[in-house]
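Hi there,

I know you've been waiting on this one. I reran it after we fixed the sequence typo, so this is the corrected version. Both the input and the resulting structure follow.
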Amino acid sequence: MNGNHGGSRWYGTFEVPINGVGTWQIGPYDLWVQRSECEWRLASLQGRDSLDRTLRVDVPSDTTDPPEGAQIKRIAFETSPESVTLGPALADRPVVVSPEDPLQVPTDEKVILYISTPVWVELTTESGRVVLIDEPTHRPSDTWFGPSPMRGELCYATRTAARMVLENIPPRPHRVISVVEIKNRAKDSLTVDRLKIPTPHLSVYVTPEGGLWTETLTFDHHGDGEMAAVMLSSAPPANASGATLARGPRVPMETGLLTRTFGGLLG
């Protein structure tokens, strides 16, 4: 399967014959697997171009060598499984997204943003009992989110255009889209220059066309500093027509969790 549009599928269960090879390119991420009678040999490499939209799946593949610069990881079995399963997952830490320009939300207004974050690749045996790989297609930089070095948490950081029109988001196979609803019930306008997306608490849904989505997130701000009640919908957004659950959250979250969500100044 080959293509360069984010709506094609790279995930699923793939059979690889003994001494056979499978290769994937998921945007900036390259994956190579080789099966022998008693082991799987794995190699992955993250490219530098986080905007790469290439999608290429070749199973079985004629490519015998792993990506240049990648290290080989060997997984031993008494008898190697006949297939492996690739699945999309979300980041193992919250992702702090920074709009290209700070966003003002007037009092008593509600806005809807479309935000994408990098997808993680989970490679397991078909039974799912053994996780062979769990890593990002493109690793975001680290950032600290909190009011002080002693209070807060380590997160990932990424820039976003924070689109308000879905069609303005370029489709990429290595990005997951979240619909983010911000309600400002405070008496003053709300300035959003950083927004913490609780990715470990989100699920991944896939559409029939192969698009990746999370639940809708609602941030309900009442003016208590940088706090907001965060609520998750129980289903994928209406934009993701026909979507089905691909992976549940890494860490379940209680509905209505009060959290410090917004960074920077609140005007």
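Quick highlight: The chain has a mean pLDDT of 87.

Best,
R. S.
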